[in-house]
């Protein structure tokens, strides 16, 4: 009986403890329990032309009555209400800004699903967008030559849809030319009225955006000069300036191309390789890339056609361009200094252990200044010629080493010159800091100073050249002669 009583008491206590949990807190939650709608997930925002394209996924929820798309930025607020089953939305007419975009489900009472981890940002493409402003022109360079226009084209991608040049012809008619229609790298448009605007219109795609964008029109300027760095650098070295009004032009050294001769509208004569002295048996290549060589041929032929340019080609340096001429000889009136007693000091002690001063001053490029080949970083050498007294120097005859062994792979391609009267104050006598050298075995360069200089010391700076690959790569430098005149 006693045990029966205890079991009954436990049963009563158990039933009391099974009261609905909701009864324990419903007096404290106001209107009762809160039920959230199923969230919209996988929200994505794509940038379009003055618009954003929003997409998402809906989760099953019978209480969803609508979709609310919220788009906000500083000073801008866009709310769009859509059908309950909508999965995408386009927000149009947007100004340039970065917008926060969220998508929420909404029920009849106006309650919305949570969006805290599904907020995305997006920025529409507008005229102010740097991607629009910096979009490729397709035309890398353009040059007007009289009533003609030359276009140098860049590579076309699948996002570049429409590139058209609009111009007025010399016949007064309007023309529209699709610059990629013929797949040309260089385009020669004849009969273009340069006094009328020439306008490039472009349409294309940006990044992952789905919209075809009409990019801002580009008016091709008639007087702009945009020379390649190596071409303008050569002009500065050769002439001391970059003057496109020259009527005679001499090109001597390796250039990526010579298309920039088109800027010289008054050019009468072009001389190729005139100042390279490397012997009749040497074979040289001034333009090694086949595409650049083809472009050079086209540009020279065009100038011959349009302005009657005379082209004289010395030796084999520039191939078959123009009228062939004999390989140039050194000027007959060149008078070299007597270098007896001159000395040469090398700034890196021990780098050329077999060198003696006369080897660089004897007018014999088979006796060399030759460094020990090393692994590691490129060395920079200062070779200082002491002429023992102040003399007037007009320039230098610099000769590459005349060798047949693998040493020929270490010929320097540039040299820097400074002169001094006292060995303390140094000045650059050239029109450019670093002067290029031809790298043909035994090749001679006549380096004329901008004006005669009084000097006792001449300092030459050259750098190692690397040759080989992997563990066999070595750095070294070799030079035949340096003779003042």
**CATH C-level category of the largest domain:** Mainly Beta
Number of helices: 5
Q: Report the strand count.
A: 28
Percent of residues in beta strands?
35-45%
Instruction: Report the end-to-end length measured between terminal Cα atoms.
Output: 136 Å
Assign an overall shape.
Answer: elongated
CATH architectural grouping of the largest domain:
Sandwich
Find the CATH superfamily of the largest domain: Galactose-binding domain-like
What is the averaged pLDDT score?
90
Structural Rg: 39 Å
Helix content: 10-25%
Organism: Butyricimonas virosa
Domain F5/8 type C: 325-460
InterPro entries: FA58C (IPR000421), Galactose-bd-like_sf (IPR008979)
Pfam families: DUF4998, F5_F8_type_C
Highlighted features:
about 475 residues, mainly beta, Immunoglobulin-like, 28 strands
Task: Explain what this protein looks like in three dimensions.
It is a single chain. The protein is mostly beta strands and 485 residues long. The protein folds into 4 domains: 38-120, Immunoglobulin-like (Sandwich); 135-218, Sandwich (Immunoglobulin-like); 238-323, no CATH class; 341-482, Sandwich (Jelly Rolls). Helices cover 11% and strands 36% of the residues. The chain contains 5 helices and 28 strands. The strands form 8 sheets. Strands 19, 21, 22, 23, 24 and 28 form a 6-stranded antiparallel beta sheet that branches. Strands 4-3-6-7 form a 4-stranded antiparallel beta sheet, with no helix packed on it. The longest helix has 18 residues, at 290-307. The chain is elongated.
């Amino acid at each position: 009986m006693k045990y029966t009583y205890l079991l009954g008491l436990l049963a009563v206590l158990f039933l009391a403890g099974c009261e609905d949990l909701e009864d324990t807190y419903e007096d404290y939650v106001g209107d009762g329990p809160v039920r959230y709608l199923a969230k919209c997930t996988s929200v994505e925002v794509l940038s379009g032309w003055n618009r954003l394209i929003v997409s998402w996924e809906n989760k099953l929820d019978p209480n969803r009555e609508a979709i609310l798309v919220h788009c906000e930025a500083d000073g801008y607020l866009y709310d769009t209400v859509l059908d309950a089953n909508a999965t995408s939305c386009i927000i149009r007419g947007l100004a340039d800004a970065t917008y926060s975009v969220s998508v929420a489900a909404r029920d009849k009472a106006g309650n919305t699903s949570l969006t805290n981890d599904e907020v995305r940002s997006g920025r529409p493409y507008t005229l102010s967008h740097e991607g629009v402003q910096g979009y490729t022109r397709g035309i890398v360079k353009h040059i007007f030559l009289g009533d003609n226009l030359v276009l140098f084209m860049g590579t076309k991608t699948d996002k570049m849809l429409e590139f058209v040049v609009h111009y007025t012809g010399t016949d007064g008619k309007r023309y529209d030319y699709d610059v990629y229609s013929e797949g040309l790298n260089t385009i020669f448009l004849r009969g273009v009225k340069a006094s009328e605007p020439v306008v490039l219109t472009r349409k294309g795609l940006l990044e992952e955006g789905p919209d075809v964008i009409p990019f801002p029109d580009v008016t091709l300027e008639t007087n702009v000069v945009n020379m390649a760095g190596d071409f303008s650098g050569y002009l500065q070295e050769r002439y001391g300036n970059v003057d496109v009004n020259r009527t005679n032009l001499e090109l001597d050294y390796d250039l990526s191309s010579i298309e920039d001769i088109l800027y010289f509208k008054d050019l009468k004569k072009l001389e190729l390789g005139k100042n390279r002295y490397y012997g009749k048996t040497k074979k040289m290549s001034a333009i090694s890339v086949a595409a650049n060589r083809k472009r050079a041929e086209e540009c020279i032929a065009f100038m011959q056609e349009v302005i009657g340019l005379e082209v004289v080609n010395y030796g084999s340096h520039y191939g078959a361009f123009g009228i062939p001429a004999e390989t140039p000889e050194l000027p007959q009136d060149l008078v070299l200094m007597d270098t007896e007693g001159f000395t040469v000091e090398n700034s890196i002690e021990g780098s050329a252990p077999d060198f003696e001063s006369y080897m660089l001053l004897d007018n014999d490029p088979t006796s060399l200044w030759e460094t020990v080949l090393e692994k590691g970083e490129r060395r920079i050498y200062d070779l200082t010629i002491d002429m023992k007294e102040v003399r007037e120097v007009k320039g230098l005859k610099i000769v590459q080493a005349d060798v047949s062994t693998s040493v020929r792979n270490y010929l320097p391609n540039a040299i820097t010159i400074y002169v001094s009267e006292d060995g303390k104050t140094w000045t650059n006598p050239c029109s450019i800091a670093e002067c290029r050298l031809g790298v043909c075995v035994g090749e001679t360069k006549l380096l004329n100073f901008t004006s005669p200089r009084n000097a006792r010391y001449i300092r030459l700076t050259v750098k190692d050249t690397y040759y080989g690959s992997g563990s066999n790569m070595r750095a070294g430098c070799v030079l035949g002669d340096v003779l003042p005149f």
